[in-house]
């Protein structure tokens, strides 16, 4: 196998690929861009992996928001993980340096100017691996900042390098939350810490050091924790612009963590003089109104008078509609008071994710998934309940927006044909394109929107369903290409017009397929009814929708060869491949790829997030009427006969690897051609770049062999 094909070589040698696995994985990866307070430049990071040298390079770069010119900031990205702008300045920065010469395992805080990064000054030595910097510049001139870290039960930040080595490796539990995602729970929990840098002391850390802002919160079932693991970060908390008030998220302390999703927003004074209190928890107006689920993204308005956030309704459903709310905040001698709780655009049938205030504090720019792309919307605080926001963006998916002083938006976006676009969207709707990775990155040369289409068809519930089509880059009219039918996970998720370094549909198409990605029942972004319809119906509506989609392709897409097609999916998508393997549609594919998918739903209580299965199968596993037995692919193994490639990783605690092993053992003992791929160091997803190259290479080797696009199977597998 030619593992290290150069970029030019791959294009010239085959004339076929716009993109190969090596190119996808070695292309620069850029973060979203954060504009400075005056809105003339923005900062982003870029990392790049070299297969040739097995090294990674990283840099902090500056984007000129007028010209789109990109320059290197000179700040070392290998030493600096996080940078924030200092409010009240044009180019002042505060950053976390990942090393600390005095405290092993600690980090340091530095103050500087992005124009002169070499003159930065160390202002604080932090004795644990703090991350998630947020900052306020106060009227006294002192800087107030928030960071987070794991903390001991007594509140002190936890530093693994300084912690005493335990004498045994036993883990003893007395409640149902033993591990989550890829991590076993310990006695330490994450907490938000506040610190002050004193202007009169060259921004040295105030003698009070860092305060754990979660200390003193009462609980009877679950300890408070912020950020909420495993994906929470600095968007789980905020500091008011005047530095006086903090807001953070914690899961409900009176419910257990495995069976409930509920989380609340706590507010309190930055100085720690009062214990923070949740304002949307039990007995609140929000709760009385039926809004009892997970909260997120608390954001103070620029004038400090309001706080906005989202919350879901159901306390054990993670894919309810995330609705936008705003409350008034005032800080006085009695502490922080919260009033005038108000839902914004409550009838908007989309889930809000990103939340950004307009500079005048009168409206919010939010992002929400809508018809297979993430778009930006504007919602005025004074809007009526019936208000339906207009789409501000189109075509590509918005990953983040930065609001500029004149209310223009700096949009960071992606799509199937670009790993990163930056553009400015002005208030009048005009766009100023600043940067597109495709056209700059040699690895992405040849990608474009010409390979991308969508179609709509009527699903099993009579609802119009969306599906994406991605053609090979060298698509030739009147030729046919085998179908690669890819089912998304979730199941409350979507196939969207967005970039991915894990499942990149253009990469699959460029092997010589037409990729079709359906968005069946359960999908998000098409209204809550479609999302909710999958409850208690894992194997019915979605399967029927996928069959109808396949029939549409067979009848209507003349350039697709459905006789030599392949089927693939991860997680719930992997469940669906296993369900299809046991049903009639399974006979229509030459090969199947299942990545960390559910095989035996009656063994699914080996997972950690029990709320998810309790919701989706409509009850606990021991309740009459729940549907674990009904929708079990295991019931249909008598029909399994299509060659199947099974991936299952060891650190997948969401769905333990025993499920993938059981599937492989069934396939092997039935004599069905099959391979099993395991990564001992990966979780539900594959992130290591060398691992991802092997993943793509071996999956393509498998599907290409069975679809007829490629030759013989390679000899990489471990045999007898
Ligand atoms: C790999 O290292 C060699 C020697 O230092 C250098 O010339 C080459 O540019 C590097 N390649 C990449 C892709 O970084
Ligand atoms: C804080 O903001 C003021 C203006 O409001 C500015 O003069 C000052 O330099 C800022 N502080 C820092 C440390 O950047
Ligand atoms: C980061 O800290 C180290 C010392 O721990 C220092 O040598 C290095 O210059 C610092 N880098 C930056 C960019 O602050
Ligand atoms: C908290 O507990 C840790 C671990 O036992 C200990 O190292 C630390 O000194 C304690 N902190 C306080 C303030 O007691
Ligand atoms: C700086 O001001 C603080 C009060 O904000 C005071 O406690 C401290 O002593 C002052 N430090 C210096 C070096 O003046
Ligand atoms: C915990 O406290 C809540 C009230 O906040 C109460 O409803 C619940 O029954 C308590 N749970 C336990 C296990 O004590
Ligand atoms: C989005 O773009 C498509 C295709 O370019 C166009 O047909 C459609 O009208 C646009 N929609 C909006 C809201 O701009
Ligand atoms: C494709 O087929 C159609 C109908 O047979 C024909 O009219 C057209 O010229 C063909 N296109 C190409 C590029 O061969
Ligand atoms: C969702 O379903 C409910 C109940 O069937 C129906 O009343 C409502 O109109 C539907 N909503 C939309 C947006 O289709
Ligand atoms: C093919 O497309 C037509 C027109 O959109 C549609 O009416 C028909 O139902 C499609 N065929 C299938 C099998 O879905
Ligand atoms: C879930 O179960 C309840 C009874 O426990 C039943 O009333 C309800 O219809 C079920 N939901 C679905 C979607 O089947
Ligand atoms: C096997 O598939 C056939 C139809 O394709 C179906 O009638 C039969 O019930 C299936 N058997 C099992 C065990 O699922």
Automatic annotation (TrEMBL):
Keyword list, A-Z: Glycoprotein, Hydrolase, Protease, Secreted, Serine protease, Signal
Top-level lineage group: Eukaryota
Peptidase S9 prolyl oligopeptidase catalytic domain ranges (all copies): 499-708
Signal peptide: 1-18
InterPro entries per record: 6-blade_b-propeller_TolB-like, AB_hydrolase_fold, Peptidase_S9_cat
Matches recorded under Gene3D superfamilies: alpha/beta hydrolase (3.40.50.1820), TolB, C-terminal domain (2.120.10.30)
One of the GO BP terms on file: proteolysis
Similarity section: Belongs to the peptidase S9C family.
Identification of the protein by name: Dipeptidyl-peptidase V
Organism: Pleomassaria siparia CBS 279.74
């Amino acid at each position: 196998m030619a593992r290290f094909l150069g970029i030019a070589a791959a294009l010239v040698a085959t004339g076929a690929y716009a993109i190969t696995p090596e190119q996808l994985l070695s292309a620069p990866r850029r973060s979203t861009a954060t504009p400075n307070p005056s809105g003339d430049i923005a900062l982003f990071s870029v990392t790049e992996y070299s297969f040739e040298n097995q090294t990674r390079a990283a840099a902090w770069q500056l984007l000129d928001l007028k010209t789109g010119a990109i320059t290197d900031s000179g700040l070392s990205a290998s030493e600096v993980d996080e940078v924030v702008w200092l409010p009240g300045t044009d180019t002042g920065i505060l950053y976390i340096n990942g090393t600390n010469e005095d405290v092993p395992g600690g980090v340091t805080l530095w103050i500087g100017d992005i124009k002169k990064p070499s003159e930065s000054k160390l202002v604080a030595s932090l004795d644990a691996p703090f991350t998630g910097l947020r900052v306020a510049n106060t009227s006294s001139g002192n800087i107030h900042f928030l960071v987070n870290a794991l903390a001991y039960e007594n509140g002190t930040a936890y530093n693994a390098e300084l912690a005493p080595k335990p004498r045994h490796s036993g883990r003893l539990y007395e409640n149902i939350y033993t591990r989550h995602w890829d991590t076993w729970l310990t006695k330490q929990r994450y907490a938000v810490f506040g610190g002050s840098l004193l202007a009169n002391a060259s921004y040295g850390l105030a003698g009070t050091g860092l305060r754990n802002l979660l200390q003193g919160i009462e609980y009877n079932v679950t300890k408070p924790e912020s950020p909420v693991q495993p994906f929470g970060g600095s968007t789980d908390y905020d500091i008011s612009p005047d530095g006086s008030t903090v807001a953070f998220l914690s899961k409900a302390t009176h419910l257990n963590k495995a069976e409930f999703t509920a989380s609340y927003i706590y507010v309190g004074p930055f100085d720690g003089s009062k214990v923070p209190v949740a304002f949307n928890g039990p007995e609140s107006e929000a709760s009385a109104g039926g809004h009892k689920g997970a909260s997120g993204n608390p954001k103070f308005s620029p004038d400090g008078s309001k706080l906005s956030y989202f919350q879901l309704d159901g306390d054990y459903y993670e894919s309810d509609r995330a609705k936008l709310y705003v409350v008034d905040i005032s800080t006085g001698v009695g502490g922080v008071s919260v009033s005038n709780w108000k839902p914004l655009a409550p009838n908007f049938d989309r889930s809000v994710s990103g939340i950004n205030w307009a500079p005048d504090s009168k409206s919010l720019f939010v992002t929400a998934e809508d018809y297979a792309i993430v778009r930006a919307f504007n919602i005025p605080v004074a809007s009526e309940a019936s208000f339906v926001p207009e789409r501000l963006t189109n075509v590509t998916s918005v990953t983040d927006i930065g609001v500029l002083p004149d209310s223009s938006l700096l949009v960071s976006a992606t799509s199937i044909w670009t790993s990163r676009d930056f553009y400015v969207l002005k208030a009048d709707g005009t766009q100023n394109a600043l940067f597109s990775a495709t056209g700059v990155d040699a690895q992405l040369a040849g990608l474009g929107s010409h390979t991308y289409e969508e179609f709509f068809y009527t699903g099993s519930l009579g609802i119009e369903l969306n599906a994406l089509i991605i053609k090979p880059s060298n698509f030739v009219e009147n030729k046919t290409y085998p179908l690669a039918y890819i089912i998304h996970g979730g199941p409350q998720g979507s196939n969207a017009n967005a970039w991915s370094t894990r499942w990149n549909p253009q990469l699959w198409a460029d092997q010589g397929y037409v990729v079709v990605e359906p968005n069946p029942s359960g999908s998000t972004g098409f209204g809550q009814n479609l999302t909710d319809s999958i409850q208690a119906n894992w194997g019915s509506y979605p399967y029927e929708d996928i069959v109808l989609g396949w029939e549409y392709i067979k009848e209507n897409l003349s350039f697709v060869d459905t006789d030599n097609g392949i089927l693939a999916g991860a997680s719930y998508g992997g469940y669906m491949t296993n369900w299809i393997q046991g049903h009639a549609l399974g006979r229509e594919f030459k090969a199947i790829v299942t990545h960390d998918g559910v095989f035996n739903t009656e063994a699914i209580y080996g997972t950690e997030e029990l709320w998810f299965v309790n919701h989706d199968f409509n009850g606990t596993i021991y309740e009459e009427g729940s549907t674990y037995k009904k929708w079990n692919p295991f019931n249909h193994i008598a029909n399994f006969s299509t060659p199947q490639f099974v991936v299952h990783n060891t650190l997948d605690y969401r769905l333990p690897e025993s499920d993938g092993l059981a599937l492989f053992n069934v396939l092997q003992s039935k004599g069905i051609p099959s391979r099993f791929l395991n990564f001992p160091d990966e979780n539900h997803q594959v992130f290591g770049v060398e691992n991802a190259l092997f993943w793509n290479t071996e999956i393509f080797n498998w599907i290409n062999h069975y679809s007829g696009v490629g030759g013989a199977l390679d000899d990489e597998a471990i045999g007898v």
